[in-house]
Design goal:
The chain is an alpha/beta fold. The chain contains 15 helices and 19 strands. The structure holds NADP nicotinamide-adenine-dinucleotide phosphate.
Length: 430
């Protein structure tokens, strides 16, 4: 940022802080987050001063806009306004991708909150920014209320030492499952509660299907230098089929069910990454178990198995806007390098423990189960009975093995068997 200062020596500069001209922001999008950015810019007197040079919208009459923001329907006007930094809060892939590439081509620093774009076109954007020597920041795209991507980007040796992550990165689904566990409410009722409190979008499809969390997992894997991964390659399950019986079984087995992202990798250049994004049993002693409501958290483990836990509030438009403006300051001062390019690697579904729930069996299925599971080398590590169902936690095995065991259980009795992934106790990688 250019500095206007007549001070000729260090002492004078220290005594009278330099007067900086505002950082000019080209805002792509003036919806929930864009409006929060504009409001903060207008209200802020703290660390830096900003000015919205122009804000791009689709339809000027589609919603109320913060007063005093120069609005345009034409992207060219945003570039013509001479922004120092372009902030993209349009959502979706296009025109966001084309406009960010256009900004980078013009040598303008870019900041985005768009995890869908980064999950699908992150390599292209990072390469373009690196080639042009332009800062690209995206702290607000993943767990915007817990800014840890920037610090890790400044610590490449630390970041490259991680070989596993587990996390809860979607506040809507964490709120729904937490409410179901705490009150015994069914999925639909818990979703209405989330909407009433403003924790769910009118259309929460991407959240409840797990797509939002999956996109954040992809951004994290790339950011940690682990892998550049096609979202379609990762095992994905939403929370819509989770029942209060599942949550009761989880509680009886000493834990709860959370919307989990998980991955582990060896760090070798050509090795596969094992990953999933699904509602999973989390033992009560695990760090993620204490994240209730809209709280978010990411637990990273390094080769020596030391854990680094980043946790905090879920992000609404206001928190996201604060993180975006902090990124704007970093982008304008050019303090952080773009992350290194991650290699494309194979993705596999990991072997993990499973929470198996068997309902509708007329008699205790335990004897038969021991035979079926034991015959396949899968042990029950904990069992519980109640509410007309029989539940167990298994030793680690693959999805295909657990599915073939469930099919056998179904074929040999009238019972219905379901399985959810499970994390191990505190201290295990997944
Ligand atoms: N909402 C949150 O709490 C939150 C938190 C973290 C990250 N994010 C991310 O932030 C981004 C923005 O989210 P949001 O909730 O602010 O979305 P939003 O309320 O739907 O706002 C999108 C804005 O972009 C404009 N826009 C969309 N397509 C356009 C096009 N083709 N041409 C011109 N303008 C266009 C819209 O114009 P109109 O106003 O004319 O419709 C609107 O102003 C997304 O990537 C989201 O994932 C959001």
């Amino acid at each position: 940022v250019p500095v206007e200062s007549g001070a000729g020596d260090r002492a004078a500069r220290t005594a009278a802080p330099a007067r900086r001209r505002p950082i000019r922001i080209g805002l792509l999008g003036l919806g929930q987050v864009g409006s929060a950015v504009a409001s903060l810019v207008q209200s802020r007197s703290a660390a830096a001063s900003f000015e919205i040079a122009a804000a791009l919208v689709r339809d000027p009459r589609s919603r109320p806009r913060p007063a005093g923001v120069p609005i345009t329907l034409h992207p060219a006007d945003v570039f013509a306004a001479g922004p120092d930094v372009v902030v993209e809060v349009l959502g979706d892939l296009e025109p966001a991708r084309t406009l960010l590439l256009a900004a980078i081509e013009r040598g303008i620093a870019v900041v985005t909150a768009n995890k869908s774009l980064l999950a699908r076109h992150g390599d292209e954007l990072i390469d373009a920014a690196a080639d042009a020597g332009v800062p690209l920041h995206y702290e607000a795209s993943v767990v915007a209320g817990v800014p840890f991507l920037g610090p890790l980007a400044r610590r490449p040796l630390l970041a490259s030492a991680f070989t596993a992550l587990t996390g809860i990165v979607n506040g809507t689904t964490n709120y729904i499952l937490s409410a179901m566990a705490a009150t015994g409410a069914g999925y639909e009722r818990a979703l209405s509660e989330a909407r009433r409190h403003g924790f769910a979008e009118p259309d929460p499809a991407k959240d409840v299907a797990g797509v939002d969390a999956l996109e954040k997992l992809i951004v994290l894997l790339r950011h940690l230098g682990c892998a550049s991964v096609d979202p379609a390659a990762i095992e994905l399950q939403g929370i819509t089929a989770i029942t209060t019986d599942d949550l009761r079984a989880a509680r009886d087995l000493g834990g709860t069910i959370k919307p989990v992202i998980a991955a582990r990798w060896s760090g070798g250049a050509h090795d596969a990454v094992e990953a999933f994004c699904a509602p999973a049993f989390v033992p009560a002693g695990h760090q993620l178990a204490c994240l209730d409501g809209v709280a978010n958290g990411v637990l990273l483990r390094d080769r020596a198995d030391a854990g680094f836990f980043f946790a905090g509030p879920g992000a609404g438009p206001h928190v996201t806007a604060i993180t975006l403006l902090d990124d704007v300051i970093e982008a304008a001062t050019g303090t952080v390098a773009a992350p290194a390019r991650a290699a494309s690697v194979r993705v596999e579904a990991p072997a993990t423990p499973w929470l198996v729930r068997i309902s509708g069996a007329p008699v205790s299925p335990s004897v038969r189960l021991t035979e079926i599971f034991g015959g396949a080398g899968v042990q029950a590590t904990r069992v519980s009975r109640g509410g007309g169902s029989f539940s167990l936690l298994t030793s680690a095995c693959t999805r295909s093995r657990i599915q073939s065991l469930l099919a056998k259980v179904g074929a040999t009795s009238d019972s219905r068997a379901t399985a959810l992934r499970a994390l191990g106790d505190r201290g295990t990688k997944l």
